[in-house]
């Protein structure tokens, strides 16, 4: 998702035509390309299994943007129990999955620009209708990511994220 908001980058001084409002991780932090095609390891667009014992689902961690018409979104991975992973697979195409209680999980994505780190924050994964990624709710603590999810961010913060990712 992007808006038509452009911005002048404080890092390089260039004018960028769009301010992105979404970023995503292609795989859980624990994945590496050498695992591809080996037994017990699967990386799909929405699901991942490592070593046949660690299970991950992809979700949307949404932050309200207080001074814009769009929300900001991190595409993240959450480590869930085997039981919840199998339950999610069982209900993958079932509209009734929206009635599922949230699945407890651990954030399995290291988001840039947060201190302390975001890896292994406690989360709840809320299922959505088929075809929609689950919503990820960070445990309401004092961690900066949890505070941003609870209280929202501003366009200045969205631009800071864009600059951080454009100029790591």
From TrEMBL:
<dbReference type="InterPro" id="IPR018697">
    <property type="entry name" value="DUF2199"/>
</dbReference>
<dbReference type="Pfam" id="PF09965">
    <property type="entry name" value="DUF2199"/>
</dbReference>
<protein>
    <submittedName>
        <fullName>DUF2199 domain-containing protein</fullName>
    </submittedName>
</protein>
């Amino acid at each position: 998702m992007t808006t038509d908001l452009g911005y002048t980058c404080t890092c390089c001084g260039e004018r960028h035509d769009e301010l992105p409002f979404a970023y995503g991780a292609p795989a859980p932090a624990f994945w590496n390309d050498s695992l591809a095609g080996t037994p017990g390891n699967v990386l799909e667009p929405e699901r991942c299994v490592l070593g046949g014992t660690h299970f991950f689902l992809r979700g949307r961690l949404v932050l309200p943007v207080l001074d814009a018409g769009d929300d900001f979104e991190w595409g993240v991975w959450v480590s869930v129990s085997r039981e919840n992973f199998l339950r999610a697979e069982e209900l993958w195409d079932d509209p009734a999955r929206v009635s599922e209680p949230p699945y407890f999980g651990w954030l399995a994505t290291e988001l840039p620009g947060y201190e302390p780190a975001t890896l292994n924050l406690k989360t709840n994964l809320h299922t959505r209708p088929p075809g929609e990624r689950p919503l990820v709710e960070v445990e309401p603590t004092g961690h900066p990511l949890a505070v941003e999810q609870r209280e929202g961010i501003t366009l200045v913060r969205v631009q800071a994220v864009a600059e951080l990712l454009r100029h790591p």
